[in-house]
């Protein structure tokens, strides 16, 4: 991810502003600014520090020219500028240090160009003209990245069914084995285990986003998310349990939007209470993994959630995954469960307490710690199923998952007859 002036959409801003340390450079700049149609009073006296102070209380311009001459550590100080620059700003820096390493580092940080003093009118004019061209260029790469993005929500039908275990495993598999840049968003604000499963500290990124949703942009995402590896970053929280969640959900939608720009995959660990309070979270979700267990209560809630999803998230593909499956000790048989929910279970993850303990001891996701075991293999099938579903062509989306190219799974579509009452869970004999 790059600095915020590399990407983003802009509203109405000043077309140009400059912060220059010396009068000689200002004398060269002002006539060129007027040639390009900019107001000469936007050429301000003062360098990087003045730019940061000014832009912290006002919108950044389309094109910003900033003087690094008085900066003792340009690379570090440029981060201060990045914090106050809004997405889309094209930054041209000027300075006195003639060092190719500095030039390369500044360009890598997102600066459009770096010019040496004393400023040449011809070089300055050319640089600002190129900055105009860069600003006006369509953001085709950003649009295509957004179009390719796949968002997966993992929802547990009951507490304790292992939805968080599956969510973290999917995120790890997408990032590590599929080599796709992946964001994991743990929306259990007070008791989330996403960071814990990855042996990480959750940080304050998510709580800061809820407190200041207006600050959510590409740079915020880059700094707030905790990186688990090269392709996986997580945003989670351990909010104080004496502080209730006070939000209208707008911050979550803004986070999802930024994820679409910055990542190929998003995995949302979505607790049921968050689904009830913020149904809009599923508006742009492509795939929903509904995690159930073989109990009467879970069967009942699977029926209710499938019915709700048909009405409120009909655009998304739904995968039903049974977790912690023990065929000889199940409260309700697989056949009875499927008859109750009126569709097939797509995958069944066998119960393995030793595998779960091993993952906890190693501080790894379940899939990472148990690559050779049967549960890990099923989770890989689930990851492949999500990828195959999302990569397939658009088809009828009535809550059924499409087959991946290999045709490994056979799915039963959900019934769409609204007049037919859903079947009640069947108790096992003797209940």
UniProtKB/TrEMBL annotation:
Annotated Response regulatory domain residues: 18-132
Name of the protein this chain belongs to: Pilus assembly protein CpaE
PANTHER family named among the record's database cross-references: SEPTUM SITE-DETERMINING PROTEIN MIND HOMOLOG, CHLOROPLASTIC (PTHR43384:SF6), SEPTUM SITE-DETERMINING PROTEIN MIND HOMOLOG, CHLOROPLASTIC-RELATED (PTHR43384)
Annotated source species: Novosphingobium rhizovicinum
Keywords attached to this entry: ATP-binding, Nucleotide-binding, Phosphoprotein
Residue numbers carrying 4-aspartylphosphate: 67
InterPro entries in the record: CheY-like_superfamily, P-loop_NTPase, ParA/MinD_ATPase, Sig_transdc_resp-reg_receiver
């Amino acid at each position: 991810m790059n600095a915020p002036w590399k990407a983003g959409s802009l509203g109405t801003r000043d077309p140009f502003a400059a912060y220059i340390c010396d009068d000689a450079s200002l004398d060269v700049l002002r006539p060129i600014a007027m040639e390009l149609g900019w107001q000469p009073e936007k050429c301000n006296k003062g360098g990087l520090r003045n730019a940061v102070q000014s832009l912290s209380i006002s919108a950044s311009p389309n094109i910003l020219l900033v003087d690094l001459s008085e900066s003792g550590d340009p690379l570090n100080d440029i981060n201060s500028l990045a914090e106050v620059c809004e997405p889309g700003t094209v930054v041209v820096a000027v300075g006195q240090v003639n060092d190719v390493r500095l030039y390369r580092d500044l360009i890598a940080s997102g600066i459009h160009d770096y010019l040496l003093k004393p400023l040449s009118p011809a070089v300055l004019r050319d640089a600002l003209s190129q900055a105009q061209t860069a600003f006006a260029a369509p953001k085709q790469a950003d649009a295509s990245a957004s179009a390719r993005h796949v968002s997966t929500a993992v929802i547990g039908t009951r507490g304790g069914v292992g939805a968080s275990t599956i969510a973290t495993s999917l995120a790890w598999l997408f990032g590590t084995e599929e080599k796709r840049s992946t964001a994991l968003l743990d929306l259990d604000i007070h008791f989330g285990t996403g960071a814990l499963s990855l042996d990480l500290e959750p940080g304050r990124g998510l709580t800061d986003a809820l407190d200041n949703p207006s600050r959510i942009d590409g740079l915020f995402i880059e700094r707030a998310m905790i990186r688990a590896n090269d392709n996986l970053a997580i945003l989670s929280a351990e909010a104080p349990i004496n502080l209730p969640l006070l939000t209208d959900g707008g911050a979550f939608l803004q986070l999802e939007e930024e994820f679409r720009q910055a990542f190929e995959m998003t995995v949302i660990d979505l607790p049921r209470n968050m689904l009830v309070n913020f149904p809009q979270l599923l508006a742009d979700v492509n795939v929903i993994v509904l995690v159930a267990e073989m109990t009467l209560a879970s069967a009942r809630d699977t029926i209710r959630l499938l019915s709700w999803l048909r009405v409120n998230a009909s655009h998304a593909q739904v995968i039903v995954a049974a977790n912690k499956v023990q065929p000889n000790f199940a409260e309700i048989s697989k056949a009875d469960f499927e008859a109750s929910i009126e569709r097939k279970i797509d995958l069944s993850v066998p119960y393995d307490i030793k595998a779960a303990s091993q993952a906890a001891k190693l501080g790894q996701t379940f899939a990472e710690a148990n690559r050779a075991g049967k549960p890990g293999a099923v989770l890989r099938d689930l990851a492949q199923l999500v990828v195959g579903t999302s990569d397939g062509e658009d088809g009828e989306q009535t809550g059924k998952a499409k087959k991946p190219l290999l045709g490994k799974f056979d799915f039963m579509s959900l019934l769409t007859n609204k007049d037919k009452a859903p079947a009640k869970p069947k108790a096992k004999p003797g209940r």
